[in-house]
Design a protein that fits this description.
single chain, mainly alpha, 3 helices
Length: 98
């Protein structure tokens, strides 16, 4: 059973990071980075609201609140790892001698 690999469509970073923004094809690194930072910020805001609702006892669904808090924590950790890798790559480029 063989498959034709020409029918496989390429995946862009913008479509992987947020499927809602799949309409815009491609995109430069800055726009992808800004969209990712906005997504992390939104997750942090939702996590804070969920934490506040738990603390005040106004939570309607404890499970969804816990998911929002975990999602905010994981997205922040991922953003920090991406930042660390970018800084490491930048430092490696600076150390490169021409």
């Amino acid at each position: 059973m063989t498959q034709n690999i020409q029918n496989i469509s390429p995946i862009s970073l913008a479509s992987v990071s947020s499927p809602q923004k799949n309409q815009q094809e491609g995109g430069d690194f800055l726009s992808v980075l800004q969209a990712s930072l906005n997504d992390v910020n939104d997750a942090q805001i939702k996590g804070d609201k969920a934490l506040q609702s738990i603390a005040t006892g106004q939570v309607k669904d404890l499970h969804q609140a816990a998911i929002a808090i975990d999602k905010a924590e994981i997205s922040m950790k991922l953003m920090l790892e991406v930042r660390n890798k970018a800084l490491s790559a930048y430092k490696d480029i600076l150390r490169t001698q021409l």
